[in-house]
């Protein structure tokens, strides 16, 4: 990517005696669009990623990013350590990672922007995925007046409970137990799940459009006799069901974190659905509890207790790193807009976590309406969630996972660009009704499909006629049984679900 002429400012913030927050601010020399964008990090952070900075710069933004207060994370080349050792004996550094670096970065960036351009930005945005998605929701919750618009992708906002989910899957698949599922059976399981649930959207295309409506029972794969390559033993069926269910407190039965949905068992990239334990496989779970909670380099994840140790985490680590507060009233009162998306095939951070947070916010807003809002019960007035079929962790995968204008389509069409959709919502008050994705058809990679991606809780449903690879043949409905409109073309401007 060729970069426009710009000025780069590097800074270090030290809000405490144990803080060392690295910050980079990029300022376009010409054609500044009058906006500020802050980009999120990934994993345990520890590095400043230049690609998101470059992408924002190309759009004309003044943009900033932070290393979240420590060095040693994954860089743009993919090199580095997925470790939280920086937190051992350094509680202030964990606070910097959790939230403080976000505020320090924005304060420094706004000061630099004012000095360079002679004026403050008219609008401020935050864009991030994964840990960056956690940071995005943290900004909405703890710094509600800092950003006009927030784009949160595949957020790990319930960081501590997500870590417990990784440990749960790890303990369920210990190599020396009869329930361990070999990686060689991944495709067997995924194919069976897709066969059972492929048609929830009205067509068979090798894609589970909405796993919420998938009723796959792994018992159908049970071996008639002993274990075999083309079936699951009784113990393996139990393990798979445990992974789908997600972690629970053994004493109270309370769910700790959502499980993984069926149909992504063989998903490429980060895959924690079926991954028998080996060193570093579940590194984020190991390092959160080992480094941030117990502060030991030799902590054994096999020893984790989902009652006692989870309670310790909820007291010690969760208040620092989790972005789960459902009270977004201040963000809404400030006029903020929150656009969240999550890939259904994310085999690292399950999409059910985004649904869980959205529903928690919805319930809170119903219980505690804010009289300053003209419609206090309407969550969609400022917060919308889009669940993308086939998308893995933040990007990639088969299905309509590319949110980008196809050839010949107006590049300013906000349905093909999440950043533009957010800008339009913030600056013109036009909320995104749907977005449109495109990509390879899973069961026939030679073909390309496009689909409308509907605002949760709606789903995409084939109208019953028309090209099954074209978005115009689909509509947004409330459930698989809903009757879809036969006249609406979602690819035309102004279309509504």
Task: Describe the protein's architecture and organization.
With 497 residues, the chain is of the alpha/beta class. It is 29% helix and 16% strand. The chain is built from 12 helices and 12 strands. The strands form 3 sheets. Strands 1-2-4-3-5-6-7-8 form an 8-stranded mixed beta sheet, with helices on both faces. Strands 9-10 form a two-stranded antiparallel sheet. A two-stranded antiparallel sheet has the order 11-12. The longest helix has 27 residues, at 91-117. Mean pLDDT is 91; it is low at 483-497.
Shape estimate: globular
Record field, number of beta strands? 12
Sketch the topology as an H/E string, one letter per element: EEEHEHEHEHHHHHHHEHEHEEEE
Multimerization state:
single chain
User: Mean pLDDT, rounded to whole units?
Assistant: 91
Tags for this entry?
single chain, 497 residues, alpha/beta, 8-stranded mixed sheet, 12 helices, 16% strand, disordered C terminus
Strands, helices and their partners?
Blueprint: E1 6-13, E2 21-28, E3 35-39, H1 50-58, E4 62-66, H2 91-117, E5 123-129, H3 131-142, E6 149-153, H4 159-172, H5 186-197, H6 234-245, H7 283-293, H8 308-316, H9 318-321, H10 329-333, E7 337-343, H11 352-367, E8 383-388, H12 418-428, E9 434-441, E10 444-454, E11 459-462, E12 474-477
Parallel strand pairs: 3-4, 3-5, 5-6, 6-7, 7-8
Antiparallel strand pairs: 1-2, 2-4, 9-10, 11-12
